[in-house]
From TrEMBL:
<dbReference type="Pfam" id="PF01061">
    <property type="entry name" value="ABC2_membrane"/>
</dbReference>
<dbReference type="GO" id="GO:0005886">
    <property type="term" value="C:plasma membrane"/>
</dbReference>
<keyword id="KW-0625">Polysaccharide transport</keyword>
<feature type="transmembrane region" description="Helical">
    <location>
        <begin position="146"/>
        <end position="172"/>
    </location>
</feature>
<feature type="transmembrane region" description="Helical">
    <location>
        <begin position="34"/>
        <end position="57"/>
    </location>
</feature>
<dbReference type="GO" id="GO:0140359">
    <property type="term" value="F:ABC-type transporter activity"/>
</dbReference>
<keyword id="KW-0812">Transmembrane</keyword>
<keyword id="KW-0762">Sugar transport</keyword>
<dbReference type="GO" id="GO:0015774">
    <property type="term" value="P:polysaccharide transport"/>
</dbReference>
<feature type="transmembrane region" description="Helical">
    <location>
        <begin position="109"/>
        <end position="140"/>
    </location>
</feature>
<dbReference type="InterPro" id="IPR013525">
    <property type="entry name" value="ABC2_TM"/>
</dbReference>
<comment type="similarity">
    <text>Belongs to the ABC-2 integral membrane protein family.</text>
</comment>
<feature type="transmembrane region" description="Helical">
    <location>
        <begin position="179"/>
        <end position="197"/>
    </location>
</feature>
<dbReference type="GO" id="GO:0015920">
    <property type="term" value="P:lipopolysaccharide transport"/>
</dbReference>
<feature type="transmembrane region" description="Helical">
    <location>
        <begin position="69"/>
        <end position="88"/>
    </location>
</feature>
<keyword id="KW-0472">Membrane</keyword>
<protein>
    <recommendedName>
        <fullName>Transport permease protein</fullName>
    </recommendedName>
</protein>
Amino acid sequence: MQGIFRSLWLYRFFIWTSIKNDFRARFVRSKLGGLWVILQPLSQVMIYAFILSNLLSNRLPGIDSTYGYAVYLMAGLLAWNLFTEIVDRCLKIFINNANTLKKVNFPRITLPVIAIGSALVNNLALFLVMNVIFLLLGHWVSGYLLYYFLLAPIVAAFAAGIGLLLGVINVFVRDTEQVVPIVLQVLFWFTPIVYPANVVPEAYQGLLGLSPLYVLVEAYHNIVLYHQPPHLMPIAVIAVMSALLCGFALVLFRKAGPDMVDAL
């Protein structure tokens, strides 16, 4: 394990340069450039808001703003998009870089770290643009938004642990890449992002609290929509769980490393 962290330190400039180039490429290779970072989630918000706004706006407790439901959606998608981008990148990272792994000698762990860093940069850009949109919609922002810089790394760590595990498994069981998007789609609809939690029947609401994604998404709703601090105890539990998950994923990655190149 110590060797992994030593490798990351030695290759820190390579990691930083790769993240910077990944973000810069979004501006160079297309006419809209970095706007693609925000256009997809904003299009999702517009579709869901247009279809469901009248139906669900009144179900948001303590919110009577015309654009309250749109802000609710954007806050939830901010957390969800970070989670899914990291899981998706880590899931495919070794398959997509198979030729590089077989021909170039470098620490393989740098690949998922670059993917995670790039996803965090993209999410930060989305966060900043969303706050500008909130102000244009008349939704004032508060100091509680600074909790984003606590929540985003926890979401990233949770997603990285899952993504790295799936990425290693995907090298040996290629069906993993086909199954994960289906599971993520199911998780999306079982997490209160499009709908508020209070529309879930009371008999099932207790189950929501068992989902780390629900806890994290609700924390985003609190700091963005309700101008409240997140509940720190469940967030701390998820942070510890994410650290353990990442540790397990790193152990599996290290043990499977010698066989991964052969399988690729």
